[in-house]
Amino acid sequence: MKKLIFNLKVSLILFLCLGIALTGGLIMQQYRSKSRLAVAAGENLISLRQRYAQAGSVTDSSGELLAWSENGIRHYHQNSNLAKAVLHTVGDYTQRIDNTIETRYQPVLLGTDRNFFHQFWLDVQGKGLGGDDVVLTLDSKISLRAAELLANRRGAVVVINYKTGEIIASTSTPSVDPQSVIDYENIPDTGLFNRALRGSYAPGSVFKLITALAWLQSDDYDPEYHVDCHGESTIDSDYANENGDGHGLVYLEDAISRSCNVFFGELGVKVGREALLNTAAGLGIGEGYNVDRLTGISSFIECEEDDLQLSWLAIGQPTGNSQLSMSPIELARFAGAIANQGVLMESHIIDHFTDPTGREYRKLKPTEERRLLNERTAANIEEMMIKAVKEGTGSGAGFDQYTIAGKTGTVQVVGQANNALFIGYIIDEDNPLAIAVIVEEGGSGGGTAAPLAGEILRYAVNSKSN
Ligand SMILES: [Zn+2]
């Protein structure tokens, strides 16, 4: 009895503490949203505008001005389509979109993060009022091309340099002109949401690469393992089926290039929940990450000990209580790590800053983040991805004389058409580019995503050589 009362007391105290913490949290939240509302209400719009009157500029890697202040007014790129294509990265001075260069680098742009001596030194030269310039790794032309190709569909494209970790392009649609954001009008539904950095998508068949990786790294790995595919899963007769009579005898390499659901559904169960989740964790799935001061959304993976869930998870499609999501930028990072012999580079979007005297500082230094897979496994996966583009489902992504490695994905989403995905990269010393493309409701078999990726990579290669 005494014990029971003691337990009751303990839980009561715990409960009280929880209550106080919750109330405290709520008050904080309310306070925060109140001050945010005040900004949004427009009473601070004028003061925000004034604050940016002498702010530094934001330029892309080719010196294209994306945001700058002149005669006390903040300007954004005059080509409205280009301004839209980089909106979610650059942002605007009203800061209605969080997680942008304009918001996260405000202290740099306004020069408020300078130490006393540096500020004094600039003041002496009569240059103390201006902010510092921010130079990005982005090539805005490629973001523009990606946005043009996405056209009126919802989606995202990320292009990275897999040797340096630089973000070369990042675009999210729908988007809107910065002036509409400032006026807060004519904003399309989800138009301010940065899908490239913050979108959570089930990766679909792209995830088969991770299932393959779990298998390659498994102690039970057997290169002779194969499945006789009749287009029908032996684990779940209702879902993961393919059209037609299936792929026949399928080994790992063909299973990737032809994206065989039956093979990977069965392999997922064979590899097992623990190995699959451990492999995903080893790749950083489930962790958050940053691109300089911009915050990416954390990926997520969870699955019960259940063959049906596991077989679905193995083909990248969460069902029941299992969960699986990755962001476009994370998918591009994964592709880039395979391309870079297994080594993931730190992702960066800031190339350097320039102070009002023209002095450059904090120049980007490419840094290895960590090794995601060993060199041999990376080469193994790469071979399968090359085949997928040469003769498999990703064939739309190939172009000119370049060797492209890639993997398509199709994801069923409740209440809408399938999402189409593609991740891949160019195998070329001079063009070390990896890409992730997501087209919401883009159709099956990678649908529109693979050819779109091919177009963007071709454009990126050509625009560089010109
Ligand atoms: Zn099959």
How would you characterize the overall build of this protein?
- Residues 1-39 have low confidence and may be disordered.
- The protein is an alpha+beta fold and 466 residues long.
- Helices cover 39% and strands 19% of the residues.
- It has 18 helices and 19 strands.
- The chain has a domain at 204-465: Beta-lactamase (3-Layer(aba) Sandwich).
- It starts with a helix and ends with a helix.
- The strands form six sheets. A six-stranded mixed β-sheet has the order 3-2-1-4-14-15, with no helix packed on it.
- The longest helix is centred in the first third of the chain and has 39 residues, at 2-40.
- It is elongated, with a radius of gyration of 25 Å.
- Strand 2 and strand 3 (73-76) form a beta hairpin.
- Bound molecules: zinc ion.
- Zinc ion is lined by residues 229, 242, 246-247, 250, 260-263.
Question: Could you tell me the number of beta strands?
Answer: 19
| Computed structural class | alpha+beta
CATH superfamily of one domain: DD-peptidase/beta-lactamase superfamily
Strand content: 15-25%
Count of helical segments?
18
The end-to-end span amounts to 84 Å
